[in-house]
Amino acid sequence: SPHATIFATLPEDKTVKTDEPRLSVGFAMSEPILPEEIGYVAMVEKVAVAVKAAMAEAGITDPADVHYVQTKTPLLTIHTIRDAKSRGKQVWTEHTHESMDLSNGVTGLGIAVALGEIDMPTDADVMHNRDLYSAVASCSSGVELDQAQVVVVGNVAGVGGKYRIGHSVMNDALDTDGIWAAIKDAGLELPERPHRDDLDGRLVNVFLKCEASQDGMVRGRRNAMLDDSDVHWHRQIKAAVGGVTATVTGDPAVFVSVSAAHQGPEGGGPVAAIVDMS
User: Fold this and answer.
1) Strands 137-142 and 66-74, bridge-based pairing
2) 147-189 pLDDT tens trace
3) Residues with active-site annotation
4) Contact predicate 259/104, CB 8 Å
5) Rounded to whole angstroms, how far apart are CA atoms 115 and 122?
6) How far is CA 171 from the centre of its chain?
7) Distance CA 113, CA 47 (A)
8) CB pairs under 8 A, 24+ apart, for 229-236?
C-alpha cells in the first residue's frame, strides 16, 4: 500500500532519555560516478567511502551497529553512454534497464566493503559472484543522479529516543522466518512461533529487498518470472514478497524494493525492522 516512513531528527529536549542503543541516521553523497565506472571496482570504492562518511554522521563507530543502508545511485542512460564513448571510454552495458540492476549490485558490494562484510571484489565478481553480498544494503538507482546518495541507519547508545532497528535476511521469497528474525533483532521479545498479534502495535515498519532467483526456482518448484514476456520479473517478485511480508506484519503498508543483486542471499534479500521500544 502507498505510504511514507519519515525519519526526523528531534531536538535533544524532545527525545526520550535512555542509555540503551536507539535509532540514529546519517547521510552522505559520494564523489561523482562516471558512466564508465558503473559496474566496476571504481564505483565500489566511491560508494564505500560515502558509506563510511554517513556512518560517521550517524555517530556509528562499529559496523555491527549498522542495520540498514539505503542508497540511490546513477544508472546508464543514452546520454551518459554517448558521453563515455565521446571520451573514448567503454561502458559495462548499453542496455539502460539492465544498468539499473548493475548499479544496484555494485552499490551493494560497496556497502559490503565499507562494513567489512567482504573484501574488495574484482571487476569479474560484479553480477557474477552472488556469494558476495551485504546483509543490510537496500540499493536503488535512477536517471536523476551522478553520485551515490547514502543513508545509513543504525543504533547508537545514548542518543535517546524510543526507536530501535535490527536486521536479518530472507533466504528465499517465502522466508517469513527471516522477517521475524529482523523484528526480534530490533529488540522485540516474541514467542518461539510468533503471530502478527504479538507485535501489539510496536512494529513501525519493515524494509526489504527482493530478487527472483537466477535458477527460476523457489524451494524446488519452478516459476515463470524470468521467462514471462508480458510482465517483467521485477513486478512479479516485488508483489510476491510484499504479500509474504504482509502476512507477517498484518499490514500491507510495507517497503519492498526489487533488484537485489549483491544485497542478501541470491534469490532472497535483506530485511530491516524498526520497532518502538517505549
Assistant:
1) parallel
2) 999 999 999 999 999 999 999 999 999 999 999 999 999 999 9
3) 72, 140
4) yes
5) 17
6) 15
7) 9
8) 234/258, 234/259, 236/212
- Rounded Cα–Cα distance for residues 88 and 17 (Å): 57
Dig out the grid coordinates for 238 from the structure. 516485488
The answer to whether 179 touches 271, Cβ cutoff 8 Å, is yes
Residue-range domains of the chain with CATH: 17-154 (3.30.1330.180), 162-276 (3.30.1330.160)
pTM: 0.96
The DSSP string of 36-50 is GGTTSHHHHHHHHHH
Angstrom distances, CA of residue 202 to CA of 129, 208, 266, 276: 38, 18, 30, 5
* Average pLDDT estimate for 34-52: 98
In the sheet that holds 137-142, the strands lie side by side as 21-29, 149-157, 66-74, 137-142
SS3 110: helix
Question: From CA 186, how far away is CA 189, in angstroms rounded?
Answer: 9
3-state secondary structure of 114: helix
Dist CA 198 CA 108 (whole Å): 33
104-118 exposure pattern, b = at least 16 Cβ within 10 A, e = fewer: bbbbbbbbbbbbebb
Q: Is the dihedral of CA 58, 272, 21, 133 positive or negative?
A: negative
Q: pLDDT tens, 70-124?
A: 999 999 999 999 999 999 999 999 999 999 999 999 999 999 999 999 999 999 9
Instruction: Tell me the Ramachandran region of residue 201: left when phi exceeds 0, alpha when psi lies from -120 to 50, beta otherwise.
Output: left
